[in-house]
Design brief:
Order of helices and strands: HHHEHEHEHHEH
Number of strands: 4
Structural class: alpha/beta
Largest sheet: 4 strands, parallel
Shape: globular
Distance between the termini: 34 Å
Strand order of the largest sheet: 1-4-2-3
Strand content: 5-15%
Length: 190
């Protein structure tokens, strides 16, 4: 499986895919071009590798590195970020489960910064663990929890990873739509 990045000129096609899926009421469909799809067998292989890796010292060292990169990136964005309503969060007990729409590759950084949550687990699509380069490194090691079509994993392994994050006092960010839909608000209005 390989990832082919979407070229800027292809965004119009992605927006068309979103609009068509909205019209059909299919809100969990992949809309990005070249977005990989894993068979259930491939999902199990990726999950097995991730869960075994997750038990190693190497994973925990690299997770600390990835978390540092994510927190540094979040701090770099912070001077331009204006957050309103933080008074409403004062009574909240942390860790918490946080949800928001997924409309940008950087929105988890914005959430991390806005809520001042340096230890944030992020629920991600399983195919993200197969991304190449630095993005793949972050998707694998930056306190991510993959979702899958595997009922067994979702009923056991996924729940265990959520519980482990909360036990470590890490809040959890979940995107309820599962897939990133570029410019959804603009497209839904079209």
């Amino acid at each position: 499986m390989t990832f082919t990045p979407v070229k800027l000129g292809e965004r119009d096609k992605v927006i068309q895919n979103i609009a068509e899926n909205v019209r059909q009421g299919k809100f969990n469909q992949k809309v990005e071009l070249h977005d990989p799809v894993l068979t259930l067998t491939e999902q199990h292989e990726v999950l097995d590798h991730f869960l075994k890796l997750h038990q190693t010292k190497r994973y925990h060292w690299r997770a600390a590195e990835a978390r540092s990169v994510m927190n540094m990136a979040a701090r770099m964005m912070n001077p331009n970020l204006k957050v309103e309503g933080t008074d409403n969060l004062k009574a909240l007990e942390w860790p918490a489960i946080i949800t928001c729409n997924h409309f940008s590759p950087i929105d988890s950084l914005l959430v991390r910064s806005a809520l001042n949550q340096p230890d944030l687990s992020i629920v991600v699509e399983l195919t993200n663990l197969k991304m190449p380069g630095m993005l793949g490194f972050l998707m694998t090691y930056a306190d991510t929890i993959p979702v899958s079509d595997s009922v067994n994993y979702m009923g056991k392994g996924f729940i265990a990873l959520l519980q482990s994050s909360l036990a470590r006092k890490q809040s959890i960010l979940i995107y309820p739509e599962r897939e990133m839909w570029f410019q959804l608000s603009q497209t839904a209005a079209a």
